[in-house]
Amino acid sequence: MINLEVFRLELNYLQQVVGKELGNKDARKLSEAITGLVTCFLNPATYYSLSLSYIQIVEHYLCQVQQKTEPYEYKLMLNNIPTIRNFIEKVKFEMPKC
């Protein structure tokens, strides 16, 4: 079970990192993708058709942040978003079942 308050805090943290490294426009797009993933996860009727694109957006921004930051800073960021990473893995695991 995901603690929604922790999830929200991690999302805010991730948005700040992406905003700092890539800009506020990218931070908003990342937030929209994660919000879309949550919606898809809660509404299985739209799950498969949209989930993959949202996952790709999130992974794209994580990759861009990795390229723009030092390795230790990126690892620190990943350590501070375990709930988001866990959620994305759950969505990936559930996708083939839909």
Give short descriptive properties of this protein:
98 residues; mainly alpha; 5 helices; globular
Compact description:
The protein is an all-alpha fold and 98 residues long.
How many domains, as an integer? 1
Can you write the helix and strand succession as a string? HHHHH
Using DSSP, what is the number of strands?
0
Distance between the termini: 20 Å
Describe the sheet with the most strands.
Answer: none
Describe this structure in words.
It contains five helices and no strands. The chain is mainly α. The protein has one domain (4-97). α1 runs antiparallel to α2, α1 packs across α3 (47-68) and α2 packs antiparallel against α3. The protein is globular and about 40 Å long. The model has no long low-confidence stretch (mean pLDDT 88).
Write the layout of secondary structure elements.
Layout: H1 4-22, H2 24-42, H3 47-68, H4 71-79, H5 82-94
